[in-house]
Amino acid sequence: MAPIKPHWSQPSHPDIQDVIVNDAEFTTKSVSKIALPPFGLFAKLEFPPCTVAAEPTYATVQIGRDKHLDLNSDLLYINHSCEPSLIFDTANMVIIAGPKGLQPGDELTFFYPSTEWDMAQPFDCFCGAPTCRGRIAGARDMTRAQLDGMWLNGHIRELLEEREQAAAVAAAAAPAETAPAKQNGSATAAATLTNGAASPHTTKTAAAAPAVPAAPADDQTVRALREALSHAEKAVEAARLALASYVAAVKPATVAGAQRRGPTSRELSGEMGGDTSV
User: Are residues 48 and 32 in the same domain?
Assistant: First the structure.
């Protein structure tokens, strides 16, 4: 699909974003014009200019399992990076700064698989980050290891869990499908021997057939579940580190004998004027 020609008034976000147009296709980028603390609000995804897309394209943003958004603004020029400066929080319909915050001149990027499950137009990433994932086709085609430590939207987490559950069920069903055949074969051979009608060849084969062993404690299902638990623990650790980074940046102070709590849900969603105290 060819690059979309802007049909909106430009610049659409002149106070926060500077678009740098390049001649080569799909190389236009944008940089920040503002400074933000970690998880500070960069922009809201509002209707209008946003509209629900009839179908996913390279320019849409996935905001649910089967729902995609046309941005219809210069926010379209926020490119992918494997070490992004922004987070697209589709549950709250906002774009917020990443855990490192944002400075003027920083390129505006986000991690496409954080919103996209199966991309309409995959590409090879050349972001240059040490953690570059290479081929970007959506979270569906990435391993948990490739997604570890990345902020993922709720619909992506749900789809990943469903994928892992399906894999665990398939792994558990595989030995169960072959077991009855072995048991039936052993039973038939035993019946033949009991009736005394077995040939010497049949008798030898039946005697040598091993019994079906009990499933070991560390079978495929157990391994799959342990792996899922390991990934969950890593995700919790990544969230803990992000929270610690945020708290260190904000440095809450004691006001008039009242000690301020940690970051509120309003702050984490980008509204940095939290005022909760005890």
Answer: yes
Q: Are 50 and 71 in contact (CB under 8 A)?
A: yes
Residue 250, domain member (yes or no): no
* Domain harbouring 67, CATH code: 2.170.270.10
| pLDDT reported for residue 268 | 41
Q: Which token pair is 261?
A: 């709590």
Distance CA 157, CA 93 (A): 17
What CA dihedral angle connects 179, 180, 183 and 187, to 10 degrees? -170
Mean pLDDT by 10 residues, the chain (278 residues): 85 97 86 98 97 96 97 97 98 97 98 98 93 96 95 97 94 69 46 41 42 52 63 67 66 44 42 37
pTM greater than 0.85 (yes/no): no
Strand partners, 87: 96
The reply to whether 56 falls in a domain is yes
Contact 12, 44 (CB under 8 A): no
Q: Which domain holds residue 234?
A: 153-208+217-240
Q: Which two tokens stand for residue 89?
A: 């929080």
Q: Which residue has the tokens 């014009």?
A: 33
**Separation between Cα atoms, residue 248 and residue 29, nearest integer Å:** 31
Q: Given phi > 0 = left and psi -120 to 50 = alpha, else beta, which region is 113? A: alpha
